[in-house]
Each structure stands twice: as C-alpha cells, then as structure tokens.
Amino acid sequence: MMRRRLCLKAALASVAAISAGCTLGGVASSAAVTRSDVLASLRLANDYWQRSNSPALWSFWDVAAYHTGNMEAYFLTGDERYRQYSTAWAEHNQWSSARSDVKAAWKYTYGETNEHVLFGDWQVCFQTYVDLYNLDPAKDPRKIARAREVMEYQLSTPNDDYWWWADGLYMVMPVMTKLYKVTGDQRYLDKLYDYFQFADQLMYDADAGLYYRDAKYIYPRHKSSNGGKDFWARGDGWVFAGLAKALADLPAGHRCRPLFVARFQRMAQALKAAQRPEGYWTRSLLDPAHAPGPETSGTAFFTYAYLWGMNHGLLERAEYAPVVRRSWQFLSKTALQADGKLGYVQPIGERAIPGQVVDKNSTASFGVGAFLLAAAELARFLDQHTLD
Asked: Is residue 167 flagged as an active site residue?
C-alpha cells in the first residue's frame, strides 16, 4: 500500500511539472513566452536605466550602444519618453562624436580623445542620429551633418583597415547602410564590402565559424586557459548582431549580401553548439572553464541576432527557436532583477578574464542596450510565432 502511495505521489508530481512547463536543455522553463511578458521586461529594464542615468552622457561606444537598443524599444512601443531620452542625449553631444576638426590629425587606432574621429567606437552614435533624423518630419540636416562629414571623409581615403577589431563591425556597419539609405551614395556600400573583407580575413576562423576579437587573440598565438581557441562572447556578439543590423538595410542584390548571409548563418550554427544548458553563453565561447558562469551582453546580442534571422527568413525557426527559448529564460528570469536592474554584464574589456567577478550586480549601458534589442525583436517574433 505504501509503495502504491509513493508511486501515486511521484506520478502527480510529474503531471504538475509538465503542467507548469517543459524542460529544454536541462532548464525548466515557463509554459509560454508571451508578448505582454516580453514588453513588461523591456519596460522594466529600460525604465530602470533611464531613471538611474541622465541622458547627459558622452557619445562614446558604451553609452551609444545603449541608445541603439533604446531606439528599437521606441520603434516597438512608440513610447515618446524613449525617443526624447535619445534626443536629449544627441543634443547634449551636439549630434557629434569625437570633436576634432583637423582632418589630418584624425586617427582610427584605439583612443578616447577628440583626435580619434575615425575610430569606430566614436561612430556608433551615428546610428541613433540617423534614426532620429529619419523620424524628423523636417529632416533637419544638422542631425546627420557630423555623421556625413566623418564618414564621407573616411570613404574618400584609400585605407580599408578601419575595422581591425570585432566590435567595429557592430559600431559602424549599420552606420554605413543607414547613411546609404539616406543619401543614396553608393560609396557607402562599396567601402562596406572592402572594410568587411579586411576584417573578415583578419579575424574570422573558418573552422570554428567565429571571430577573434582582434589579431592579438588569434590561435595559436593566443590560447584559452585549457590550450584551445579563445573566442570572446561579447566580441562575437558585436559581429553577429552587427551582421543582422547591416543586412536589415542592405539591398537584396548587393555583392555584400551573399558573404554576410553566409557568415551570419555559420555563426548561428557555431553559437548554437556553444550555448550552455542554462541558456547563457560563457565569456570564452569554446572553453567554458576559462571564465565560467553567465554573461548577459553576449547572450543578449546573440538572442537578438537569432530572432532577427528567424524574423527575416535567414534562420530556421525549428532549429533556433529552442536556442532563444533558453537564452530568453536566462535573460528575463535571471539577468533581469525584480527592480529592473540588468545583471551579469561583463564590464568594459576585450576578452574573457579568468577570475573576474560577473554577478547579478554587474550592469552596464551596453548590456541594457543589447537586452532591449533582444526584447524588441522577440516581441516582433511573437506577433507571428511562438517559442513553444
């Protein structure tokens, strides 16, 4: 009799577990991901960030990357507070980036000073300036005047090695496709192809289907703690998301497109294999033990790009929706705190660092931007499909 009761209790527990949700890759997930829940998470994270941070911050990459996500939150929700926040930031920075006007002194090596005008980390702000310009019925030219001045000067040079680090592909590729749509200047797309080819030949590992952060980290010159290839999650997040954003505005017949699509689809495959059962990606993608534990910024950029690819017919839903199901579970239930703070964001850096503490209190503007990109794209996905 006792044995029967124990069996009955076990059966009832199994039924309860099934009704509460399913298990994907070892992670118990809720019964459904709904659009309303995704919107609630987006608002929770963005409202917390904007309450906690003045828009009067500089136009360098860390803050500017947040605004690329904030603009997607605005496009999705139509919430004028979000548009006004990015407008206030743009006005604070006078719709500019690094401020030097001496073109002969402009540099594209790493730098945070006014002379580093051609360094892509100073150019990502132009994405948001163009977005705000396009929303302006009057099309005020001052909003994109500095963007055009900088980028069209760059296009006039013979150099093609501007994107010597993986982050630059997110920072600048979408600037070039957005400005092409505004101006119709074919040079934006011609140089996009040349610049990308340089970056691709420098950093892409065809066997792994992933990008090294820059030349310093190419195997076997650099190895992970366990002697393998060391691909930095946020670095590959910049590339995967940057490809999605560039493809969004790239003409269907342009010569860039086959290469961009091929790299995008190969990265999707490689990243799927590297995802942890808990839904996140570790900082060193192929060596989880190198810097173990969850990381939000790379995970959010990957989630955004997977969703964009499924929404635009470049990735198969049957193959990749479960990947997003797992990653969104981590992002919305673990990384996002009850008060709206987004945790587990690796601080500013360029590699996976063994022993570095990344926990629920670790947050940063660019991580929130990546989360907003993912949430907005997931809401669009849920307009047509389910993750179940």
From this structure: yes
